[in-house]
Amino acid sequence: MSPFKGQTGLKRIVNAAGYSLAGLRVAIAGEAAFRQLMLLNLVLIPLAFYSDVSRGERALMVGVCLLALIVELLNSALEAAVDRISLEVHPLSKNAKDMGSAAQFMSLTLIASVWTVILLG
Prior knowledge:
single chain; 121 residues; Helix Hairpins; 84% helix; 0% strand; globular; membrane
């Protein structure tokens, strides 16, 4: 058992929820890209419910939108960790940040692709 591990059981779940909410607050306050994706989701998710599509298609349309938020949170966490290690320009740091950005680009491409196929298919 790691000495760095915290509580177990219900206390762990409560603590984890608190950490998650803190992370969302930080993302909303400090990450413009996350706020932009939230706005995009505020438009697209209701639109998915007003679209004449099957339940499975609607779930997919909403799911890819939420996936983009998840990817942005992970990308922001990666960038914060890289910056915490060093603000020095380094090829490996650049690669890590660029790959995080590429992951976000792919998730946005997925949104466009899924929505296009469903709405035009």
